[in-house]
Specification:
42% of the residues lie in helices and 0% in strands. By secondary structure, it is mostly helical. The protein has a domain of 61 residues. The longest helix has 18 residues. It starts with a helix and ends in a 39-residue tail after the last helix.
């Protein structure tokens, strides 16, 4: 059984070129040579991409980043006219 230390060493060995290849493989579901990724391999590649991004990229640059909602304001302050939209505090659900 592989332990956490082995995974950490693997993630630490990912360079920008490998990261780009892993990210592309996850996006299209196959390697550059056309060989398809199994579900398990695709999930493992995705974990590697996420780990790399967490270590090397700002949150705004990471895959799946969703910018915060911006409050819309107008010259008026009457909320009944929809001048200010309240933020939606519902958590994201990952499936």
């Amino acid at each position: 059984m592989t332990n956490v230390k082995d995974f950490q060493q693997l993630f630490d060995s990912i360079n920008p070129e490998i990261y780009e290849k892993l990210k592309r493989a996850v996006e299209v579901g196959k390697w550059a040579d056309g060989e398809r990724l199994s579900r398990e391999l695709r999930a493992n590649c995705m974990q590697a991409v996420i780990a790399y991004e967490h270590k090397h990229l700002s949150p705004e640059e990471r895959s799946g980043y969703v910018p915060p909602k911006v409050k819309k304001e107008s010259c008026g302050t009457d909320k009944s006219q929809g001048a200010i939209s309240e933020p939606d505090d519902k958590p994201l659900k990952w499936t």
